[in-house]
Design brief:
The structure holds 2 protein chains of 2 kinds. By secondary structure, chain A is an all-alpha fold. Chain A is about 45% helix and about 0% strand. Chain B has a 3-stranded antiparallel sheet with strand order 1-3-2. In chain B, β2 and β3 form a beta hairpin. The chains are: A mainly alpha, B mainly alpha.
Chain lengths: ~120, ~140
Amino acid sequence: MTTPTETRQPRPNFWLRAIEHRKHALTREYRRTLGDTAREGISDEDYATTMATLEKMARNLGWSEDQQDERPFVPGRGFGHGHGHGRDFGHGRPGRFDRRPERDVRERPDTATPES
Amino acid sequence: MSSPRPIGFWLKLVDRMIDEQFASTLEEHGVTRRQWQLLNVLTQEPATVDALDAAVAPFLSAEQDESSAEHLAELVDSGWVVVTQTRYQLTDRGSTALDRLSAVVGAQRTQITQGLTQEQYDETLRVLETMARNLGWSD
């Protein structure tokens, strides 16, 4: 049995959905405002240069368009997608330097040329 | 080279990739990030463990009562660092190893910016700094 007051009020689920809706709306608004604030004093041309530079850096680091739907980099696995680095980044944990402290560094001068 | 992706995508991507590449490089050479930081601090002058703790304080876990000493122990065992009375000091061996590792890290940084002009790079840094300051960052 319900009281008249209870029948006039929305169910809790209504308010939960209302809160979620407003939360998303405020988040969108906040992000838009934040983006506008961040770009103050920056010309479209300079902004475009920055975007292009960042994209170039990402590609130099091994990112490619076909990786867009997956994590571009898996922590602890290095660039394990075969994108031209030719180095054994992250493929198996190397020996700790307390075993061979200088060998790792001294015997691998070629590691200074990642693309070689 | 234009892209419809938001700048946040590129910022997060590049930041993560640089971070991971750096971590992998250090790991490949058997050095932890904290040890890399400590070695670089010691290139300036010998230091006490308290001074080293202070230098890397933002990176030490307060909850676990983490100290530089535990990171230095491996370096001492390896002969990269020596303890002189109360101070830690970089050895010639450690200095040589650090120089070589620094060269690797430096080469990677150069590789990341291949194909970019100095002007583009400088402009990007200026824009990113402006954005950070616009969002409230200050020195």
